[in-house]
C-alpha cells in the first residue's frame, strides 16, 4: 500500500486534493451531499474528464493536442444531427460520433507522423479546420438529442450518478486492462524515450498514430457526453476545453514531457478543475471577485505539485 | 556565429508575397501602398506579442498569459492617462511595461523555481489576471483614455511608414542583437536545447528564465499599450483573439516549438503572414466556417512545405 | 573448426554515410554461429554504426546484408528481431519511466500490441540472478536504477529473446569486474549453444577473456580479422590507431608529500549519502575516488561543484575557503572549479549545438575571458587531437571519445584551479585515454588540483597518486604508493578485510 | 392583461405565462456566462444595483451571482445547483439558445422560475427578457437609409461574434431593411463585438473597397469609427451600438445616425420580471424591451453619454419605462464586496 502510494505519488496527491475540494463544495452546498447534487457535479466533471483523457493520450507520447476542444465541438455538432430518431439510428449515431472523433485524431496522427511536424503545431492548425467544419454543420447552436437517452446518460443509476458509473467503466473496463497491453505499454515507452522504444523493436510510428487516434476517440466521447448534457449542437465550445484539458492532465500528475501519468490521474485532474469552478456557487465570494479566486485556487493547486521541487536536495534532480 | 536568416525563416516572406499576389487577383487594391502600409501597422501588434513569444519559445517554454497581460497593460495605461494627472499620464507607458515585466517575473517564478510546466503555470497566471481585471472594472472604474503618445505609437507614421511597425522592427533589431550577439542570447538557446547541461556549464539558468519571461511580459504589455492606442481605449478580453495567432506566427517563422532553434527574423515574416492572411480572408467576405478551414489548411501547408524541404535536403 | 554453412551474418561492401562523414566505407564482414567475435577500434571507428545496421536501427547507404546466406533488408529493429539479431546498445534501450518488469515485457519475444503475458520473465529473472542482479526489483522504475543495474537489466532483456546473434556494444562498461565475469560465463554458454556474439569493448582484458576472433576497425574500414592470439596487444593497438602507443599512463612524479595543498575539503557531509569526507590534493597530485557505483563519491563531486543543497563541510582552494553554492559560483575566476559530469550527452554537452558553441559555453560567463577567442581552446584541442569535420558542425556528429574531448576542452579554457572529473574515460578508446591522461598529468604538474572519480581501477592505480575508496557515503580506505593494488582497491570497495586502518575521522 | 406592459412589452404574437404566487422574501440567482467582458460586468453591476435599491431589497432573502465561462454544460450545472438549493428564481444569459430544455423541465418540477435574458432560448416555455434583436438591427439600418433618403450604392456592415443567435438576428434585422434598397452593394466584415477587431476589419474593408455611403455596426463600433477616421473616410451616416466611447465620437465628429444598444441593465429587468412572476403576476412569454436609442442630434454629454467614464462603459444604464435608470455612481459605487 505504502509502496503503491509512493510510486503513484502524483495520482495520490491529486486524489487527496480532489477529496478536499469536493468536501468543501459539498460542505458549502445548501443541499449537501445528495444524489442530485452529485449528479450535477459528476456530469460536468466527466465532460472535462473525457477531454483530459483525450489530452492524456497526446501528452503521454510527449505531444500536446490543441484540437481536443475542436474535436469536441465537431463531434457535438455531428451528434446534434444523429442522436434523435429511431433507437437503431441513435445507436449508429453514437458510434458514428465517436468514430468521427477517432478520425480527427487519426488525421492529426498522420500529419504528425508522416509530415514530421510537432503535434502542438499540427493540432493548432487542424483545430481551426475542425471548428470550421463544425460551423458549417451548425452556424448557430441547434439540433436536438433524444431526451430519454440524454436523461439516461446524465441522471443516476440506482442513486449513483451515471457519469460516475461511466468514469468507473472507463477506468476498470478500459484503462486497467489497456495498461497491460503492448499498445498501452508502448505509449509510455514512446513518451519516455523514443530512442529506447524504437531500439526495443517498437513500431513508434504506429504507436504515435494510435495515441493520437485514441486522443481523437476520447475527444469524440467528450463531445458525445457533452451532447447528452446539453442536448444540442454548438460549434463554439472549443476554446475553453482545450486549455483546461491541459491544465487537468498536469493537475492529475501527468508529465508534459511524456511517459509518466495515467488516465486515472487525468480524470482526477479534470474533476479537480471542475470542482474548483463549482466551489464558487455557494462560496459567498463576491461575484466580481470569483474569477480571481478561481484563478488563485487553480494556481495554488498547481503550485502544490510544484512545491515538491523545493525539497530536492540535489539541484540536478529538478531538470529531469 | 550562425546567421539568423535561414531558409525556414524566409518561408513566411515568400508566403506573404504569394498572398499579396493572389489577393490582388480579387482586389487590385491589395497592391496599393495604403493597404500594404496598413498591414504593416496592424502586423506590428501581433508582431510585438510574437517577439516576446519567440524568446520564451526559444527557451523551450510557452507563455499563455499573453492575452491578459496585454489587457492588463492596456487597462493600466489608459487608467493612468485617464486620471488627467500629467505625471501619471507621463508614466503610463513605463508603468504598463513594468507591469508586463512583473507578470513575467511571476511567470518565471513558477517555471524556474517551482518547475511548473510553463504551459499550465502561465495559463493559471492568465486566469488570475482575468480575475484581477474583472474585479478592478467592477469596483472602482476610472475613466480610461489613451495618451497622445500611445495613439502616435499605434497610428502615427514617419515618412509614410507606420510608427507601430518601426517600433516593432526596432525592438526586433535590439532583441535580435541580444539573441545573436550576447551571452544571454546564447544561454537562452542553450537552455532551449538542454537546460541541465547549460546549468552545469556554470550558467545561472533561473536568471535567464526570469529575464526572458520579463522581456516577454514587456512585449505583451507594449502590445497592449499600442492596441489601446490604436482603439483609443482599453476593454476586457482585448487580448483573447491574439493568443493562438501569436503562437502560429512564431512557428510559421521557423522557430522550433521545442526550443533552441529559430529567431526573430522569421517571426517578423510569421506575423506579417498571419496578419495578411487574416486580412485577405476578411476582405474576401468568406463565410466564417470557411475562413477557419482555409486558415488551418494554409498553416498546415506552410508547415508541411517546411518539413518537405528539409526532407529533400537531408 | 570447419563450417561449410554460410555465415550467420554477412555484410558485403557496406557503407554508411552521415552527410560528409563516412562512418563505414566499403566494409566486408562476417560472423559465424557459435563464435564470439570482438570488434575493436578507436572511438569513431564505426563499430556502433556497424551494429546499428545489423540491428535494423540504421540502414546502409550502400551494400548488402545477408542472414544465413539470404539477402535481407533490415528496415526496422523488428526486422532484425525477426531474424534473431538482438543488440544491447551502447546507449541503453531501456525506457526510463517504466519498471523493470514492463521493460522486460516490452522486449519479450512475441510481445505485440495486444495482451502481454509474462512469457520470458522468469528467464529474465534467472539471467538477473546469475549476473548479480538479484537485488533489482521487478517493480523498480528503471530511471531509479544505477547505471550498472541498468546494464544488467539490458543484458537480461537481450538474452531472454534467445538471440541467434547477440551484440554487446560496450554493454558491460559500467559493471564491476566480478559481474563482468558472470556475464561472460553466460555469453560463453550462449555461444556454446550456437549463438553468434559480437562483442565491443574498450577494455582489452575483456576481449582477451571472451573473444574467439577479432576484427579491428579503423576510420570506417575493417583493417583485419584474425583468431585471438594471432596478434599481441601492442600489435592490435597499432592496428587500431594506425600508430605506436608507447605508454598508456604517464610517469608519476615522485615526492609530493610536502608540495602545497591546492584543494582541501574538511568534513563534507550531505544527507546520509556523504558522510564526513575529508581529503586534500597537493600540487602535482591526481587524486582518485573509487568505490562501487552509488557509494557517495559521485554525490561528493557534485557537492564540491555546488550542486547539493544543505551540504556541510568546508572547501578551501589554494588556502582560500569558499562557499560554493552553484556551478556559476564554482566557475568564477576567484574559485575556478571545473566539473566534467558523468553523462556527457545530457549533462556535459548540448548535442544540438555546434562544437564551437559548446566550447564557448563555460567561458561565456567569465568576465576575465573572451569566450570567442579561439586561443582559449586551441591548445587543448590540439593536445587532445580532436577529430572533427569543422567546429561549426553539431557536437552530436562526433564520436563518444571526441565528444568527451570537447567537454574537457570547454572546461580547460577556464584554466581551472581544480578539476573534478566523474568517470571521464568511460567508453573511451585507448588512444584518447592516453591523450586525456597526458593532459591531466600535465595540468597537475602545473598546479591544478585533480579529483578523478573512476570505475576503472587501472586508472586509480596507474594514474592517481592517492585513491580514496568510498563505501556507504564515507571514505573507507585511502591508498597511496605501494598500497595501490587491485586487491586493496577491491577489498576496500566491498569494505572487507583491513578497512579499520584506512578509516579516518 | 399582462403586468406593466409599458415595461414588459409583449413580443408580437407571444403567449402569456404566470405561476402561483409565492410569499417572499425570495432567493434569487443570476447565472452569467463569461465574465471577462465589459458588457457582462456591467450586467452584474446592474443586477446588484437593482438588488440594493430599497424597494427591492426587502423582497430578497438571498441574491447570488455566478459566472461560469463559455461552457453551456457548466451553466446547466450552475442552474441545477441553484434549483437543488431551493432558489425561487434564476435569471441567466444563456451560453447556448438550445441547450436548456432538460433544465427547464427540472426547474418546473422543483418550482423554480427561470428567466433568461440577453442571449435567450429558442423556447416558449419560460418568460424571456430581451430586446428584439431583429428590431435592433433593423433600427440601425432603417435610420441610416432614412438619413440617406432611401438611396445608397454601397454600405458596410460590421457583424458580431459568429455562431451566436443574437449576431444572427441583428444581421437579419439589418438585412431586412437593406435588401429592399435597389442596387445596394452590401460589404460584410466580422468584428466579433470587439473594438480592436472591428477597427482592423473596417480598415481593411476601406482600403480594398473604397468609400461607403453608410456603416451599420454591432458592439465595438468605436473601432469602426476610428478606422474611418484613420483612413480619412468622409463622415457618413452610421448605425452604431451604445458604448460610451462610440457616443463620444459620434457627438464629437457630428456623425449622423443612431446609437442603439442592447443595455446591460437588462439584467435588472430580468430580476424585476422574476419577482413579478413570483408574486403571481402574468407576463408575456417573450418580452421585448423598448430599445434604448439616441438619434445623433440628441447626444448630450452627461445625459446619454459620460465623458468621465471609460469608453467601454455601456450607456444602457436602464429602461426608463421600467424603473429609474441607474446612475453611473449607483453602478460603479457598488462596492464589489456586498453581494
Ligand atoms: N547520427 C550520426 N550523424 C552523424 N554522424 C554520425 C552519426 N552516428 C555516428 N556518426 C559518426 O560516424 C562515425 C562512427 O561512429 P560510431 O558511433 O560508429 O563509432 P564507434 O566506433 O562506435 O565509437 P565509440 O567507440 O566512441 O563508440 C563517427 O565519426 C561519428 O561521428
Ligand atoms: N536514496 C537516495 N536519496 C537521495 N538521492 C539519491 C538517492 N540515490 C541516488 N540519489 C541521487 O543520485 C546522485 C548520485 O549520487 P551517488 O552517491 O549515488 O553517486 P555515486 O556513488 O558517485 O555514483 P557514480 O559512481 O555512478 O558516480 C546523488 O546526487 C543523489 O541525488
Ligand atoms: O448582447 C451582447 C452581450 O451578450 C455581450 O456580452 O456583449 C455584447 C452584447 O451585444
Ligand atoms: Mg560506439
Ligand atoms: Mg451634440
TrEMBL record, chain A:
Keyword Transport recorded: yes
Domain of life: Bacteria
Coiled-coil region: none
Main location: membrane
Compartments where found: Cell membrane
Membrane topology: Multi-pass membrane protein
GO terms, molecular function: transmembrane transporter activity
UniProt keyword annotations, A-Z: Cell inner membrane, Cell membrane, Membrane, Transmembrane, Transmembrane helix, Transport
InterPro entries on file: ABC_transp_permease
Transmembrane regions: 12-28, 40-59, 66-83, 89-113, 120-137, 157-178, 209-229, 235-256, 263-285, 291-310
CDD domains per UniProt: TM_PBP1_transp_AraH_like
A GO-annotated cellular component: plasma membrane
Keyword Transport: yes
Function: Part of the ABC transporter complex LsrABCD involved in autoinducer 2 (AI-2) import. Probably responsible for the translocation of the substrate across the membrane.
Quaternary structure (record): The complex is composed of two ATP-binding proteins (LsrA), two transmembrane proteins (LsrC and LsrD) and a solute-binding protein (LsrB).
The protein's name: Autoinducer 2 import system permease protein LsrC
UniProtKB/TrEMBL annotation, chain B:
Protein name: ABC transporter permease
Organism: Roseobacter cerasinus
Membrane topology: Multi-pass membrane protein
GO terms for MF: transmembrane transporter activity
Cellular component annotations (GO), alphabetically ordered: plasma membrane
Signal peptide segment: none
Pfam families per record: BPD_transp_2 (PF02653)
Primary subcellular site in the record, as a coarse category: membrane
Keyword Cell membrane: yes
Keyword Cell membrane assigned: yes
UniProt entry keywords in alphabetical sequence: Cell membrane, Membrane, Transmembrane, Transmembrane helix
UniProt-annotated location(s): Cell membrane
TM region(s), chain numbering: 12-36, 42-59, 66-84, 90-113, 120-138, 158-179, 208-230, 242-259, 264-283, 289-308
Automatic annotation (TrEMBL), chain C:
Domain of life: Bacteria
Gene3D superfamilies the UniProt entry points to: P-loop containing nucleotide triphosphate hydrolases (3.40.50.300)
Keywords on record: ATP-binding, Nucleotide-binding, Repeat, Sugar transport, Transport
Domain ABC transporter: 9-244, 256-497
SMART domains in UniProt: AAA (SM00382)
GO MF entries: ATP binding; ATP hydrolysis activity
InterPro entries referenced in this protein's UniProt entry, alphabetically: AAA+_ATPase, ABC_carbohydrate_import_ATPase, ABC_transporter-like_ATP-bd, ABC_transporter-like_CS, P-loop_NTPase
A Pfam family recorded for this sequence: ABC_tran
Residues spanning the membrane: none
The name this protein goes by in its record: Ribose import ATP-binding protein RbsA
Organism ancestry: Bacteria, Pseudomonadati, Pseudomonadota, Alphaproteobacteria, Rhodobacterales
Amino acid at each position: 500500500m505504502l509502496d503503491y502510494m509512493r510510486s503513484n505519488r502524483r495520482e495520490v496527491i491529486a486524489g487527496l486534493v480532489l477529496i478536499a475540494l469536493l468536501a468543501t463544495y459539498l460542505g458549502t452546498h445548501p443541499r449537501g451531499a445528495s444524489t442530485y447534487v452529485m449528479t450535477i457535479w459528476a456530469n460536468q466533471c466527466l465532460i472535462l474528464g473525457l477531454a483530459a483523457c483525450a489530452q492524456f493520450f497526446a501528452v503521454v507520447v510527449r505531444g500536446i493536442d490543441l484540437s481536443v476542444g475542436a474535436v469536441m465541438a465537431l463531434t457535438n455538432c455531428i451528434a446534434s444531427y444523429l442522436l434523435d430518431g429511431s433507437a437503431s439510428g441513435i445507436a449508429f449515431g453514437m458510434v458514428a460520433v465517436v468514430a468521427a472523433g477517432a478520425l480527427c485524431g487519426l488525421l492529426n496522427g498522420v500529419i504528425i507522423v508522416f509530415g514530421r511536424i510537432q503535434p502542438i503545431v499540427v493540432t493548432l492548425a487542424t483545430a481551426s479546420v475542425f471548428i470550421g467544419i463544425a460551423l458549417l454543420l451548425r452556424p448557430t447552436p441547434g439540433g436536438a438529442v433524444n431526451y430519454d437517452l440524454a436523461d439516461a446518460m446524465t441522471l443516476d443509476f440506482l442513486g449513483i450518478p451515471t457519469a460516475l458509473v461511466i468514469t468507473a467503466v472507463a477506468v476498470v473496463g478500459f484503462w486497467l486492462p489497456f495498461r497491460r497491453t503492448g499498445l498501452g505499454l508502448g505509449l509510455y515507452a514512446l513518451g519516455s524515450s523514443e530512442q529506447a522504444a524504437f531500439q526495443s523493436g517498437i513500431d513508434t510510428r504506429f504507436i504515435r498514430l494510435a495515441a493520437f487516434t485514441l486522443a481523437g476517440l476520447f475527444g469524440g466521447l467528450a463531445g458525445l457526453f457533452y451532447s447528452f448534457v446539453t442536448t444540442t449542437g454548438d460549434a463554439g465550445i472549443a476554446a475553453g476545453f482545450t486549455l483546461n484539458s491541459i491544465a487537468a492532465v498536469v493537475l492529475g500528475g501527468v508529465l508534459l514531457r511524456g511517459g509518466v501519468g495515467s488516465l486515472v490521474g487525468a480524470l482526477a485532474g479534470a474533476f479537480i478543475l471542475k470542482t474548483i469552478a463549482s466551489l464558487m456557487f455557494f462560496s459567498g465570494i463576491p461575484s466580481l471577485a470569483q474569477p480571481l479566486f478561481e484563478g488563485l485556487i487553480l494556481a495554488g493547486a498547481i503550485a502544490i505539485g510544484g512545491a515538491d521541487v523545493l525539497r530536492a536536495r540535489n539541484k540536478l534532480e529538478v531538470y529531469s | 556565429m550562425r546567421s539568423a536568416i535561414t531558409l525556414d525563416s524566409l518561408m513566411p516572406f515568400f508566403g506573404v508575397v504569394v498572398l499579396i499576389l493572389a489577393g490582388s487577383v480579387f482586389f487590385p487594391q491589395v497592391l496599393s501602398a495604403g493597404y500594404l502600409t496598413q498591414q504593416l501597422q496592424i502586423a506590428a501588434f501581433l508582431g510585438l506579442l510574437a517577439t516576446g513569444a519567440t524568446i520564451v519559445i526559444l527557451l523551450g517554454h510557452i507563455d499563455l498569459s499573453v492575452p491578459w497581460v496585454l489587457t492588463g497593460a492596456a487597462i493600466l495605461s489608459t487608467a493612468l492617462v485617464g486620471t488627467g494627472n500629467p505625471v501619471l499620464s507621463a508614466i503610463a507607458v513605463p508603468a504598463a511595461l513594468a507591469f508586463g515585466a512583473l507578470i513575467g517575473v511571476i511567470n518565471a517564478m513558477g517555471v524556474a523555481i517551482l518547475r511548473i510546466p510553463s504551459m499550465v503555470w502561465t495559463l493559471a497566471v492568465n486566469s488570475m489576471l482575468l480575475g484581477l481585471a474583472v474585479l478592478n472594472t467592477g469596483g472602482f472604474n476610472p475613466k480610461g483614455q489613451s495618451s497622445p503618445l500611445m495613439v502616435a505609437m499605434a497610428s502615427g507614421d514617419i515618412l509614410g511608414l507606420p510608427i507601430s511597425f518601426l517600433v516593432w522592427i526596432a525592438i526586433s533589431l535590439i532583441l535580435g542583437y541580444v539573441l545573436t550577439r550576447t551571452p544571454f542570447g546564447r544561454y537562452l538557446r542553450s537552455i532551449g536545447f538542454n537546460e541541465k547541461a547549460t546549468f552545469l556549464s556554470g550558467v545561472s539558468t533561473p536568471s535567464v528564465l526570469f529575464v526572458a519571461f520579463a522581456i516577454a511580459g514587456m512585449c505583451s504589455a507594449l502590445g497592449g499599450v499600442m492596441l489601446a492606442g490604436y482603439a483609443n481605449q482599453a476593454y476586457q478580453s482585448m487580448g483573447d483573439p491574439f493568443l493562438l495567432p501569436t503562437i502560429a506566427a512564431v512557428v510559421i517563422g521557423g522557430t522550433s516549438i521545442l526550443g533552441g532553434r529559430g529567431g526573430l527574423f522569421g517571426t517578423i515574416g510569421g506575423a506579417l503572414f498571419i496578419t495578411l492572411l487574416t486580412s485577405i480572408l476578411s476582405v474576401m467576405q468568406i463565410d466564417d466556417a470557411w475562413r477557419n478551414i482555409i486558415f488551418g489548411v494554409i498553416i498546415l501547408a506552410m508547415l508541411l512545405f517546411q518539413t518537405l524541404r528539409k526532407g529533400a535536403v537531408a | 573448426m570447419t563450417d561449410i554453412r554460410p555465415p550467420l551474418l554477412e555484410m558485403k561492401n557496406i557503407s554508411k554515410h552521415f552527410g560528409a562523414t563516412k562512418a563505414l566505407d566499403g566494409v566486408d564482414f562476417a560472423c559465424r554461429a557459435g563464435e564470439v567475435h570482438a570488434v575493436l577500434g578507436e572511438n569513431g571507428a564505426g563499430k556502433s554504426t556497424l551494429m546499428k545496421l545489423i540491428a535494423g536501427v540504421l540502414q546502409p547507404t550502400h551494400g548488402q546484408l545477408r542472414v544465413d546466406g539470404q539477402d535481407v533488408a533490415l528496415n526496422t529493429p523488428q526486422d532484425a528481431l525477426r531474424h534473431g539479431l538482438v543488440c544491447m546498445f551502447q546507449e541503453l534501450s531501456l525506457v526510463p519511466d517504466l519498471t523493470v518488469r514492463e521493460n522486460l515485457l516490452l522486449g519479450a519475444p512475441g510481445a505485440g500490441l495486444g495482451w502481454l503475458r509474462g512469457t520470458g520473465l522468469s528467464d529474465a529473472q534467472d539471467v538477473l540472478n546469475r549476473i548479480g542482479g538479484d537485488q533489482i526489483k521487478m517493480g523498480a522504475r528503471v530511471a531509479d536504477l544505477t547505471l550498472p543495474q541498468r546494464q544488467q537489466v539490458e543484458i537480461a532483456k537481450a538474452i531472454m529473446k534467445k538471440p541467434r546473434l547477440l551484440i554487446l556494444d560496450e554493454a558491460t562498461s559500467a559493471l564491476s569486474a566480478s559481474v563482468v565475469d558472470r556475464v561472460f560465463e553466460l555469453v560463453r554458454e550462449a555461444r556454446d549453444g550456437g549463438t553468434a556474439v559480437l562483442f565491443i569493448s574498450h577494455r582489452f582484458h575483456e576481449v582477451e577473456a571472451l573473444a574467439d576472433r577479432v576484427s579491428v576497425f579503423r576510420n570506417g574500414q575493417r583493417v583485419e580479422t584474425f583468431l585471438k592470439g594471432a596478434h599481441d596487444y601492442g600489435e592490435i593497438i597499432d592496428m587500431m590507431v594506425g600508430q605506436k602507443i608507447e605508454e598508456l599512463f604517464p610517469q608519476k612524479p615522485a615526492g609530493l608529500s610536502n608540495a602545497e595543498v591546492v584543494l582541501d575539503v574538511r568534513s563534507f557531509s550531505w544527507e546520509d549519502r556523504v558522510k564526513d569526507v575529508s581529503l586534500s590534493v597537493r600540487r602535482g597530485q591526481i587524486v582518485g575516488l573509487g568505490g562501487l557505483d552509488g557509494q557517495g563519491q559521485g554525490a561528493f563531486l557534485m557537492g564540491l561543484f555546488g550542486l547539493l543543497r544543505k551540504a556541510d563541510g568546508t572547501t578551501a582552494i589554494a588556502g582560500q575557503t569558499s562557499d560554493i553554492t552553484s556551478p556559476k559560483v564554482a566557475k568564477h575566476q576567484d574559485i575556478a572549479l571545473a566539473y566534467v559530469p558523468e553523462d556527457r550527452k545530457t549533462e556535459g554537452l548540448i548535442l544540438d549545438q555546434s562544437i564551437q558553441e559548446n566550447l564557448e559555453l563555460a567561458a561565456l560567463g567569465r568576465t576575465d575571458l573572451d569566450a570567442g577567442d579561439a586561443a582559449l581552446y586551441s591548445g587543448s584541442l590540439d593536445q587532445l587531437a580532436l577529430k572533427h569535420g569543422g567546429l561549426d558542425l553539431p557536437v552530436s556528429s562526433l564520436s563518444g571519445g571526441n565528444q568527451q574531448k570537447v567537454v574537457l576542452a570547454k572546461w580547460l579554457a577556464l584554466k581551472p584551479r581544480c578539476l573534478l572529473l566523474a568517470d571521464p574515460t568511460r567508453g573511451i578508446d585507448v588512444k584518447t585515454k592516453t591523450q586525456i591522461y597526458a593532459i591531466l598529468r600535465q595540468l597537475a604538474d602545473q598546479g591544478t588540483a585533480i579529483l578523478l572519480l573512476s570505475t576503472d581501477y587501472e586508472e586509480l592505480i596507474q594514474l592517481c597518486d592517492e585513491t580514496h575508496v568510498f563505501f556507504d557515503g564515507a571514505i573507507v580506505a585511502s591508498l597511496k604508493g605501494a598500497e595501490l593494488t587491485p586487491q586493496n582497491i577491491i577489498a576496500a570497495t566491498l569494505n572487507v578485510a583491513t578497512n579499520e586502518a584506512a578509516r579516518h575521522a | 392583461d399582462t403586468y406593466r406592459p409599458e415595461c414588459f412589452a409583449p413580443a408580437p404574437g407571444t403567449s402569456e405565462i404566470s405561476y402561483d404566487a409565492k410569499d417572499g422574501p425570495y432567493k434569487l440567482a443570476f447565472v452569467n456566462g463569461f465574465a471577462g467582458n465589459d458588457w457582462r460586468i456591467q450586467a452584474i453591476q446592474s443586477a446588484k444595483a437593482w438588488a440594493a435599491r430599497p424597494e427591492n431589497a426587502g423582497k430578497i432573502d438571498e441574491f447570488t451571482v455566478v459566472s461560469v465561462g463559455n461552457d453551456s454544460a457548466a451553466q446547466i450545472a450552475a442552474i441545477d445547483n441553484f434549483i437543488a438549493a431551493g432558489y425561487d428564481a434564476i435569471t441567466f444569459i444563456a451560453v447556448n439558445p438550445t441547450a436548456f430544455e432538460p433544465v427547464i423541465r427540472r426547474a418546473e418540477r422543483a418550482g423554480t422560475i427561470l428567466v433568461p435574458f440577453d442571449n435567450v432560448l429558442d423556447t416558449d416555455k419560460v418568460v424571456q427578457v430581451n430586446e428584439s434583436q431583429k428590431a435592433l438591427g433593423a433600427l440601425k439600418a432603417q435610420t441610416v437609409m432614412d438619413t440617406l433618403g432611401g438611396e445608397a450604392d454601397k454600405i458596410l456592415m460590421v457583424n458580431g461574434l459568429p455562431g451566436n443567435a443574437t449576431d444572427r438576428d441583428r444581421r437579419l434585422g439589418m438585412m431586412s431593411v437593406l435588401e429592399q434598397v435597389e442596387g445596394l452593394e452590401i460589404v460584410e466584415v466580422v468584428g466579433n463585438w470587439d473594438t480592436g477587431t472591428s477597427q482592423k476589419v473596417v480598415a481593411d474593408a476601406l482600403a480594398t473597397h473604397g468609400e461607403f455611403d453608410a456603416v451599420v455596426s454591432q458592439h465595438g463600433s468605436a473601432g469602426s469609427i476610428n478606422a474611418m477616421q484613420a483612413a480619412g473616410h468622409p463622415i457618413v451616416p452610421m448605425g452604431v451600438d451604445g458604448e460610451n466611447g462610440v457616443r463620444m465620437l459620434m457627438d464629437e465628429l457630428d456623425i449622423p445616425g443612431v446609437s442603439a444598444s442592447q443595455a446591460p441593465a437588462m439584467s435588472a429587468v430580468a430580476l424585476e420580471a422574476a419577482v413579478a412572476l413570483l408574486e403571481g403576476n402574468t407576463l408575456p412569454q417573450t418580452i421585448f424591451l423598448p430599445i434604448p436609442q439616441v438619434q445623433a442630434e440628441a447626444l448630450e454629454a452627461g445625459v446619454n453619454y459620460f465623458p468621465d467614464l471609460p469608453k467601454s462603459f455601456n450607456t444602457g444604464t436602464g429602461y426608463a419605462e421600467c424603473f429609474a435608470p441607474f446612475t453611473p455612481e449607483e453602478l460603479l459605487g457598488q462596492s464589489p464586496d456586498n453581494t
